[in-house]
Amino acid sequence: MDQTNLVIVFPIVCSMLSALCGAVILRDALTRPRSDKIVWAIAFAMFALAAGADAAGIAFGWSHWLAKLYYATGPALVVAFLAIGQLYLLFPGTMRRFGVGLTLLVTALWVSLVVNAPIDNSRLATDGWDAIERGGEMVAVTILINSVGTAIIVGGTAWSVWRYRRRGVHRQRMIGCGLICAGTLVVAAGGSLTRLGHYEYLYIAMAIGVSMIFGGVLVSRRPEREVVQSSAVASGVALDGAVVSSRAAPIGHVNALACVDDLLQRPDAELDRFCAEWSVPREDAPAMSRTDARRGWRLRLLLSPEAVALFDSLPVGARRQVSTLYHDVLTWERPAREEITGIVPAPEPVIAARQA
Prior knowledge:
The chain is mainly alpha-helical and 356 residues long. It folds into 2 domains: 3-220, Rhopdopsin 7-helix transmembrane proteins (Up-down Bundle); 226-330, no CATH class. 76% of the residues lie in helices and 0% in strands. The chain contains 17 helices and no strands. The chain has helices spanning 3-31, 35-60, 64-73, 77-90, 92-116, 121-127, 136-167, 171-193, 200-220, 225-235, 253-264, 268-277, 290-302, 305-313, 316-330, 337-343, 348-355.
């Protein structure tokens, strides 16, 4: 394989992997719309466009619009969108108010810088997108977006890994977040590899990093069957229509949270049916009572950032339903025998028989 073929292979691989990853995330977002997934799907679509533009430029020659397309979608905006998606998970309430504005602001700033950047025509044919003359403003914004964005992505995923490990739940998500975190670091380090003198090193790192991120996305999508199954057995809950025998011991709070997390990922109709089967039908009241609000907030504080985003996206009735299921069914503890007899007096015939 000659040098040109070697250089073009890795951008094509990156473009295909990014498009595939974006399609998987978009499918999840269409099944259950969530802002973080929509933003991430757009980010991977831009990554695919940038890598595809690079491959097209190498194969067919560079033009002004191709160089601008690569630079508008590649070097900084992908990281910005991934970071914004992470912020939607970490701060769902704040991002619901400011997320769209922040996204539009960053996008408009970066695209305007790229569109107005001059191109050195004498270098375009040989250097491609590197012929774009980057002024001080563009360099500063690039460094700012990449450094802050990478810190948000890595910090957010690392925090999720730590939290899952500390609580002993969501093993699949913990592994997935770890892969996403490591893949982000590999992608971020890709630019420094070009200093070794070989352009193809950039996309070698990119291909490895995107593969790790895609693997993390796939792993995190796996249901936590072993955890959810244990919680179902402990509480007598039937998941997916399977009949599970009940046990006398009350369910542990950790397993109850795993069961709630599984429910939050289901379609609304299935969530409603499941809760109704376990004595918690949905009420149509448009607002929560003070007691319901406190119980819902107490549950919300125990959930992972991903589960919080799902919980907040539910209608009021569904949130009330899930919190009632958690507090009154999944974590209900049977009083001790002496507590029961102290509260409910024994029937008179039984007392008389004992006295006799």
